[in-house]
Design brief:
By secondary structure, this protein is α/β, with parallel strands linked by helices. Helix content is 38%, strand content 9%. The chain is built from 19 helices and seven strands. The strands form two sheets. The protein has a five-stranded mixed β-sheet, with helices on both faces. Strands 1-2 form a two-stranded antiparallel sheet. A hairpin with a 4-residue loop joins strand 4 and strand 5. Helix 2 runs antiparallel to helix 8 and helix 3 crosses helix 4. The longest helix is centred in the middle third of the chain and has 16 residues.
Length: 440
């Protein structure tokens, strides 16, 4: 009891073991270290190490060699046993039972050979001086870090799969839900009218989708009419990056110069994409070609712009950036930190499925898609082509700017050197072309 209380005060004791921790455990077992020494280094309790080894040790069967090279006799008395005809199958049997394959199954005095290393710490054969070749124990255990980590991942995944209901409870729920669905009731109506079920609307939809209930999706009024939601597999998985960078944190900021950021994907024929910026005040649109849609490629664009503009000018233009939760923006610290380790910008993320929170850049994308429709491959697209497209878009007068073009509004707020560094140039109004033939 005292050990359990003391283990609560060990830093990091309540976190799961990682693959690196298991590799360290395997190395230390091979050199004969104790559980206490391993636990002290990993900041864990010794009981944690013991449970990890016993739960994830790998079972190996190596038949031992007994008397007369018998690979089937695992009795501790096999070397000096003189018994004959224990099985009684043959009347005149003059062969010692120790050399018979069926000795262990018929002898009442059979005692299986065991090893103390497997019955108590370290519970595995790692670090044993004998090795597998000279050990006569048939059933051995070995701790392998890669196997243990794979089994841990499988257990973690399986524990979160399925439903937490017994068969009886599922039948009881089905008897209530399915008749109501056949009568045309919606899952929300069922939840409101039958709170004793203890289910949410989403749970009912999930049970129907998994085929656990007699009712099916075809029995629902409207579900089959809707398209399946798109699965965003490229979103940020590390939730810690959102700390202090949520849209609610963005709304608490004083009025600043806000720039919206996003990416435009190519077709499946190309891995290239376009990094876009939209200045809210000037309605200015920028686009830069990326060979890969990765964090490193986005960071390279930031560094290139900072080098052209200077750190001070860059921090003024891109003071606050609002973007979505795409995986290419998953390292905000790298994007916020300049080449001289100074903070050059602040990045905030929109809420999931709320593209309207950065509606300015989404509207600019519609103009970009007039020239590069969805399904267009960017494999042969160049930055020169993008500059031509952007300059045409920024040269169209906007009603929100009282008839001014985004380029003209930016020219009134920024120096000409800044616009040249951003690769912006005016286009003659009579030569503005927003058709797909623009880059041909």
């Amino acid at each position: 009891m005292e050990g359990d209380i003391m283990s609560k005060y060990i830093p990091g004791n309540h976190k799961h073991l990682t693959a690196a921790d298991r590799l360290y455990i395997e190395r230390q077992l091979n050199v004969g270290s104790s559980f206490k020494d391993i636990a002290r280094y990993l900041c864990k309790d010794p009981s944690t190490i013991s449970k990890e080894i016993r739960a994830h040790r790998l079972s190996d069967f190596y038949p031992g060699r007994g008397l007369f090279l018998n690979a089937k006799n695992f009795c501790i008395h096999r070397f000096h046993c003189q018994k004959k005809n224990v099985c009684g199958k043959i009347i005149l049997c003059d062969i010692k039972c120790a050399s018979c394959p069926s000795c262990n199954q018929h002898c009442k005095d059979f005692v299986k050979e065991r090893c103390q290393r497997l019955d108590r710490a370290p519970y595995v054969c790692n670090g044993c001086d004998k090795g597998h070749a000279r050990c006569t124990i048939p059933h051995k255990y070995h701790y392998d870090a890669l196997f243990a980590d794979r089994r841990y991942r499988e257990t973690l995944r399986d524990s979160r799969s399925g439903i937490n209901l017994s068969r009886e409870n599922l039948h009881r729920i089905d008897a209530v839900i399915t008749p109501l669905i056949w009568q045309g009731h919606s899952p929300y109506q069922i939840v409101v009218e039958h709170p004793e079920l203890g289910l949410s609307v989403r749970s009912i939809y999930q049970y129907i989708e998994l085929g656990l209930l007699t009712g099916r999706n075809i029995d629902l009024k409207r579900k089959v009419k809707f398209k399946a939601r798109k699965c965003h597999k490229t979103q940020i998985t590390d939730r810690q990056v959102f700390s202090g960078r949520l849209y609610s944190d963005f709304q608490k900021l004083p009025p600043t110069h806000v720039v919206e950021m996003d990416t435009v994907k190519s077709s499946r024929d190309s891995k290239k994409c376009i990094l876009t910026f939209y200045f809210r005040d000037e309605k200015l649109f920028l686009a830069y070609l990326l060979n890969r849609c990765t964090t490193g490629a986005v960071r390279a664009v930031f560094d290139r712009l900072e080098k052209r503009l200077g750190t001070v000018t860059f921090s003024i233009l891109f003071e606050t950036i609002l973007t979505d939760r795409g995986g290419e923006f998953g390292d905000p610290e790298a994007l916020e930190t300049g080449m001289d380790d100074y903070q050059r910008t602040s990045i905030y993320y929109c809420d999931p499925m709320r593209s309207g929170q950065k509606g300015g850049i989404e509207n600019a994308h519609t103009k970009l898609r007039e020239i590069l429709p969805k399904g267009t491959s960017f494999e042969y697209l160049t930055q020169w082509d993008l500059n031509l497209i952007v300059n045409n878009i920024n040269s169209v007068p906007r009603q929100s700017l009282l008839g001014l073009t985004p380029y003209r509004a930016a020219k009134e707020n920024f120096d000409m050197d800044v616009l040249l560094a951003l690769q912006l140039r005016p286009v003659d109004p009579d030569q503005i072309n927003l058709t797909p033939e623009l880059i041909k």
